[in-house]
Amino acid sequence: MSTRSQAKIISKSLKVPIYLYQHYDGYALYKIVQNAIIRGRDRWNDPEYLTRIIFSEMIKDYVMGETGYGIGTSEHGDIEFLITVDIDNQTIQENNKQKIKFKDTTQTKQEDLYK
Description:
Order of helices and strands: EEHHEEEEH
Number of helices: 3
Low-confidence stretches: 109-115
Shape: globular
Mean pLDDT: 91
Structural class: alpha+beta
Helix content: 10-25%
Number of strands: 6
């Protein structure tokens, strides 16, 4: 069974939120987003680039696939995990759990990124 998930990217500079969809392994999306935030540190204030970095991290092993991932402007009704990335406030939040600041995410050791 699939665990569908989305990363919701929000910023005042975007007219609408951008939703990055992942059909499988939704439980891993939070860690994927963390890895992207760490890797994209120099783009924390650039919504377009940071969104692309997050999506690239999501699809890195499936670049040529035709299904499994997508980009949209609305939340799917059947997702199990929603990761909100607030670029202006530099926070990440999984579902309705506590928000974590980007800077706190970067305290993860580099060798632990892909575990």
